[in-house]
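Pipeline run #58 for the internal structure catalog. This entry was flagged by the ingest filter as a single-chain record with no existing model, so it goes straight to prediction. Upstream metadata was stripped on purpose; only the residue string is passed forward. Reviewer on rotation: M.T. Logging verbosity set to normal.
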Amino acid sequence: MAALLTSTSLSHCELCPRRCGADRSGGQRGVCGAGASLKIARVALHFWEEPPISGERGSGTVFFSACPLKCVYCQNHEISTGGFGLEVPAERLVEIMLELQDQGAHNINLVTATHYAHLLPRAVKQARERGLSIPIVYNTSGYERVEAVEELAQIVDVWLVDFKYADAALGRALSHVPDYPAVAEGALAAMCASVERSGGELVDDTGLMKRGLIVRHLVLPGHVDDSCRVLDRIWGVAGDVPISVMNQYTPNAAMRAAGGELSRPVNEAEYEYVLDHADDLGFTRMFWQEGGAVDESFTPPFDTTGVLYTATQL
C-alpha cells in the first residue's frame, strides 16, 4: 500500500479518518477547512501544558489552523472553524521549529496538525539536519488514521492525545463525526505500539518527557458517565499510561446561547466523580486541575505571533 503521508498529492485528500476526498490541490477545502497551503495561527512558548511537556521554559507550540473535528463547544473556534491564521510556505515550518528551539523551548509541540501531516516528515527531517535536537510532540484530538500514526512514529517522540468520547452518538452530536471512539482506540493503540518499539517511555531527571504518551480527557458538564467510560477504554487499550483529566471546560458563546448542560462549567462533584473512577481503575500517573481552572486562560491569544519572519530575518 502506498504511504499515506509521503504522497505529495492533495487531489483526493484522505489524511484524516473522514477521508473526504477534497481536491485541496485544485482549490477545494476539506471538511477540516484546510486548502493546499499551510496555515498557522500562532507560534510561541506555551506554559499551560502538562508539567512533563511545559517544564520551566515552556513548550514550543505551533497552532495550525482548521480541524478535522467540528466540536460545538470548541474554545479555539477562531482557528478550528473560523479560518483564522496566515498562509506560509511549507519551508517556513522548518524555520519556526529552529526559532522555538533558540527561544529555549523544551520541545516542538505541533497542535492539531492532522490535516497538514503530509508536510511533517520532510520538515522535521530538514530541521534535524539543521540542528533541531529537542523532542517532537504531536498534540492531537485523537481522531487519526492508524496509517498516519504509524508513519508519524518515525518523527514523533511524544504523543499528547485526546480521548473525547466513549459513546459514538455523543461524538456525532458534539463533534460531527460518526465513529470517534473506534477511531480513537485504534489510534491510541498505534501510538502505544510506537512508544514500545522506540524503547518505551523516557523521562529525564527534571521530569521532562523525552519519549512517551499522555492521554487527555476533557470532562464535559452533564456527561460524567461517558467520561468514566472513556477512562475504561483508555485503560483497556493502554493500561496505566499517564492521563490528564481536565476540568477547564468553558462554555463558548454558542453554548451559552443554546442553554442546557453545556452552557455551564463542570462542577466540583462531577469532576471528583471522574477522578475517583480513575483512581478505582488503577491509574497511578494522573494530572488534574485545581479549582478555578475555568477562570484562567488556558487558550492563548490567536494573533499570528511568531508565524511570519521577523524584520531581522528578512
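catalog note: The beta strands are 38-46, 59-64, 86-88, 108-111, 136-140, 158-162, 202-203, 209-218, 243-246, 286-288.
catalog note: The first strand starts at residue 38 and ends at 46.
status: ready for reviewer M.T.
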